[in-house]
Amino acid sequence: MRLSVVVPCYNEQDCLPRLRAALLHVLTPLTDEFEVILVDDGSVDGTLDQLRALARADSRFRYLSLSRNFGKEAAMLAGLAHAAGDMVALLDADLQHPPELLGDMVALLDKGYDQVVARRTRTGDSRTRSAASRLYYRMMNRLVDVELTDGVGDFRLLSRRAVDSLLSLQERNRFSKGLFSWIGFDTAVVDYENVARTDGTTKWSLRSLVNYGIDGIVAFNHQPLRLAVYLGALCTAAAFGYALWLVVSALMHGTTAPGYVTLMCGIIGFGGMQLLLVGILGEYLGRIYHETKRRPHFLLKESSHAPEAPCADD
To answer: What is the pTM of this model?
Structure first.
């Protein structure tokens, strides 16, 4: 058994010493054959220097350095593409994904599963955040073509067959939560309680979370476009109904000057609706545009096993 652990890193210099100690504590008794692939996603602090030092001190710790910040999706893809293990784990560098779960996850994968997913419970979350999360996933599962589960993220263990299946998907606009679900295969779930970050700061702002949510909605379905058709039909029917009401009112009570409030509400309402529909079309058109350019997902600046050979992976 050879186990690969892929860890995307972006400005994680404060977390790396504890991450190394935690991984060695878990992986050393678990298997004699393991590698840790740390992917530097264009960090601007001392992360890359620490990764170089880790690789020099222990050959089981490898690193990849991307030419700039391509985002977590690209960093995970880079790690998966360079992982040589029969099973590959994905986890975050901030230790909010407890490495201690890897033993149970490996045991489940040995039973014939191709994916073992770690699901975070909502213990300790505020009611507002829990309610917002449940509402988001309920809405997502009504729209998207795959099943997404609340609390399930990138922390998981994959068989070689599952990894190869993911690497065969060459779309540029990647939404890993959906891709993990789309490839299918037998999946087991391990629950764990929320772990607070102890070092560094989160890289997820409210804006990035909203953008990530939009990516999830449009990446796996065309329901928003279908919704635009229904909304347009509803507005047309409402307009005809309102026109009919005006005609009947004029025949029964005579003509009257149209109200200013009604006119302005109609203009603002329909104008906003048109902008919304144009925005939906733009989201899909933009993704088609990026797909047709066929740019690589990431560019590799440096790696521990071939530092002299920068490469692009598509």
So the answer is: 0.67
